[in-house]
Amino acid sequence: MTTPGNNGGHTTESGRLLKPSADVGIVGYGAYVPRYRLPASEISRVWTGGQGGAPITEKAVPGLDEDVATMSIEAARNALARAQIAPSQIRAVWVGSESHPYAVKPTSTIVGEAIGAAPHILAGDWEFACKAGSEAMQAAIGLVGSGMAAYALSIGMDTAQGRPGDALEYTAAAGGAAYLIGPAENSLAVFEGTYSYVTDTPDFWRRPHETYPSHGDRFTGEPAYFHHVTSAATALMEELGAEPGDFDYAVFHQPNVKFPTRAAKMLGFGKAQIETGLLVGVVGNVYAGSSLLGLTAVLDIAQPGSRVLMVSYGSGAGSDAMALRITDRVTERQGRAPTTQAYIARREVIDYATYARYRGKLQMR
Amino acid sequence: MREVNIVGIGQTPVGEHWGHSLSDLAREAVGAAFLDAGISRVDALFVGNMLAGELSHQEHLGALISDQIGLRGIEAARAEASDASGGLALRQGYIAVASGAVETALVLGVEKFTDVVGNARLAALVAGLDAEYEGTHGATLTALAALLMRRYMHEYGVELEAFAGFSENAHANAASNPNAMFHNTLRPGAFAAAPAVAPPVSLFDAAPEGDGAAAVVLAAAGRAVESASPPLRIAASAVATDTLAVQDRPDPLFLAAANLSAGRAYEQAGIAPSDVDVFELHDSYTIMAVLALEACGFARRGEGTRPAVEGEIGLAGQLPIATFGGLKARGHAGGATGLYQVVELALQLRGEAGRNQVEDVRIGMAQNVGGLGGTAVTHILERA
Questions:
Q1: How far, in Å, CA of A168 to CA of A175, rounded?
Q2: Is A100 annotated as catalytic?
Q3: Is residue B311 in some structural domain?
Q4: Is A120 a catalytic residue?
Q5: Which of A134, B61, B224, B277 supports an S-S bond with A312, CB 3.0-4.6 Å?
Q6: Which one of A52, A218, A223 has the shortest CB-CB distance to B195?
Q7: Has residue B202 been placed in a domain?
Q8: Could you give the CA distance from residue B382 to residue B235 in angstroms, rounded to a whole number?
Q9: How crowded is residue B357: how many other Cβ atoms within 10 Å of its Cβ?
Q10: Is A223's CB within 8 Å of B196's CB?
Q11: DSSP readout, B351-383?
Q12: Burial degree of A364 (CB within 10 A; 0-12, 13-18, 19+)
């Protein structure tokens, strides 16, 4: 039976559940976190004389020769290593980020070429603040699920910008993940369904030619993050007839430790369900890569049959909610590339001065 | 001059009303006040507002709001004296009715702070200081309050802890006020441990900015209205000014405008400070509460913290202040604050204050101060 707004897919009565006619899943995934870490105590040392609390312990900082293109390539190679498909089978390379190296010229063509997927591909860069990566995943699910393509690569990756001295400087970090979406029969996790909830909510933005974003202080909380994350999660669970207790793991967009922890509590998820995917305390907020990186940490250890809920959040604003069921294939693929925790453990602490140099913050004006 | 009564009151909660505009807030408070008064028309509207032009790009509030509340055509105007705008609007409404120019008037205080954040809002707030001699040089309200507080502590040998009682009392009273911005009480020791804003002013010395609107309906005494609650007489209404720049005051620790307006109000009402049962004062900073108590004759110079230290300012104390949380915990709604104070006094005098009720209130006083004392507006209410 078809429902309004859905041509032939097996969605629900409301037509709001996003689900393609053919089942699709994650064939391979890959994390990437750069090696440098800036402790929050360094930022407060410089800006507040060490006064006041910090929203996280430390954040990942990209090296001088790293950007969203190079980091996406690392993550994509990890995804390919796990999937063990030929790059030439990929029909789309999509990169979601709010720190694309170029304003005009796609990151995705660089990535597509570097991993050997070009030239017979779609390629494009996505922008929806921190939701750009999950938006690219939704699109890939549609592309593969419709039969247009066998495989599509979606990446969420950022080298996020925080204005020196701003509250966001503590958390704005670098990292992300790549997902190779393909047919369910070759997947390590199958999408049970996805949902997207979007409104015009101006909580955080960056204008052209601006180096750093602006934000609306506490407005970024209740009407922005919490409203969209909980609305998306609740709607998806309703559409699937699922409850928080049905999921073994839940991953939320994580701009700091407090927000996802509170959102989980509001929805009825317990600490045991969220701790595996809650990385922000030691990685920072990797923006478009945030919830995607949390999900790779879950996939690294998930057992066949487990169910996972992932909810992204992008300012502006919207949330993608995705429900996944882990398949038997997860076990053979987990060890084929470095785990998320391996990247987190690979760390070199830097001071604020080094960070300022690496991030190009030294400017006389 | 004839007598003027308050025959209706209304208020919105103070808070971060991101989904509500100036007009939305105004309609809600006015609707409540009209319902309370049992009328739906007045002859004139006076709006107290501080920063609509700067923060909402909206001036000309008289015409806007009279239309929004369905009273197109009536006389309407805005009054401005920084965060004493609400009290000043009430003074304008009082004069209009007392003079016989109008029979009834609506006085609304409305403020919408939260559409603008960070330094942009701070810059707007600073416009209430002397731009040439204070604002341009980087002074802010908090910075100047910190200088006053530091000077006060030095001059009179007062310790920081002596100020704690003002914030603790405000939070305790706000906890049972459904319209308050904060409902948390302060734990013992929390005041001393609060993060500094501009030392010695900490987070728990300074009132938070919140959106809100409050309104009162005025009518000439003797005019029949269908309100279920008894009318309250405005026994005194007085405005006074001081130098705008704090640096120009011969004695910066003396709020001359507060002293003058309170003195004129006592004279008009024919009472002494000791006759006041409830005092809603302008506790934008704890130091401002201390200086107001001294300026209005409730404490000797240098002894303004004593009522708090000795537990006299609580609901059961000798001089209850901030009975619904004050600016500190009900929230400081800028140009609406002066009307919140009067609405709260009215609830006390009517005996409708619920868990915040002070026993046997006959005379209530509200004092609304602009900035750090450039303008002070004092009103005294009693049962008609």
A1: 16
A2: no
A3: yes
A4: no
A5: A134
A6: A52
A7: no
A8: 6
A9: 16
A10: no
A11: T--GGGPPTT--EEEEEEEETTTTEEEEEEEEE
A12: exposed
How many separate domains does chain B show?
Answer: 1
Q: Do A51 and B16 touch (CB under 8 A)?
A: no
Q: Which CATH number fits domain A191-328: 1.10.10.410, 3.40.630.10, 2.60.40.1930, 3.40.47.10?
A: 3.40.47.10
* CA–CA dist A194, A23 (Å, integer): 12
pLDDT by residue for chain B (384 residues), tens digit each? 999 999 999 999 999 999 999 999 999 999 999 999 999 999 999 999 999 999 999 999 999 999 999 999 999 999 999 999 999 999 999 999 999 999 999 999 999 999 999 899 999 999 999 999 999 999 999 999 999 999 999 999 999 999 999 999 999 999 999 999 999 999 999 999 999 999 999 999 999 999 999 999 999 998 877 888 999 999 999 999 999 999 999 999 999 999 999 999 999 999 999 999 999 999 999 999 999 999 999 999 999 999 999 999 999 999 999 999 999 999 999 999 999 999 999 999 999 999 999 999 999 999 999 999 999 999 999 998
Catalytic site includes residue A66: no
Among residues B320, B316, B290, the alpha carbon closest in space to that of B302 is found at: B290
CB atoms within 10 A of CB B15: 18
In terms of residue numbers, what domain contains B331? Answer: 141-181+235-383
The CA-atom distances, in angstroms, between A125 and each of A3, A322, B89 are 31, 21, 55
Instruction: List where CATH 3.40.47.10 sits in chain A.
Output: 24-188+340-358, 191-328
Answer whether B196 sits within 8 Å of A51, measured CB to CB: yes
CA nearest B238: which of B349, B368, B81, B105? B368
CATH number for the domain spanning B170: value is: 3.40.47.10
Substitution target from B17, B18, B116 for chain A, most A beta carbons within 10 A: B18
CATH number belonging to domain A24-188+340-358: 3.40.47.10
Contact A52 B114 (CB under 8 A): no
Interchain contact B19–A (C-beta under 8 A) = yes
For residue A215, give every residue at least 6 positions away whose Cβ sits within 8 Å of its Cβ, in sequence order, or none.
A168, A203, A204, A205, A315
- Do the domain assignments include residue B132? no
- Among A217, A222, A226, A227, the strongest candidate for a mutation testing the B interface, having the largest count of B CBs within 10 A, is A217
For helices B286-295 and B141-156, what crossing angle results, to 10°?
A: 60
* DSSP per-residue letters across A145-187: HTTS-SEEEEEEEEE----TTSGGGGTB-EEEEEEEEEEGGG-
In the stretch 117-136 of chain B, residues with CB closer than 8 A to chain A read 117-118
Q: Are strands B375-383 and B232-241 parallel, antiparallel or unpaired?
A: antiparallel
**Residue from the list B19, B117, B196 with its beta carbon closest to the beta carbon of A217:** B117
Does pTM top 0.95 for this prediction? no
Nearest-by-CA chain B residue for A52: B195
Query: Of A66, A130, A135, A169, which residue is the catalytic one?
Result: A130
Residue A324 and residue A308 in contact, taking contact as beta carbons nearer than 8 Å: yes
Checking ipTM against 0.90, whether it exceeds it is no
Domain contains B12: no
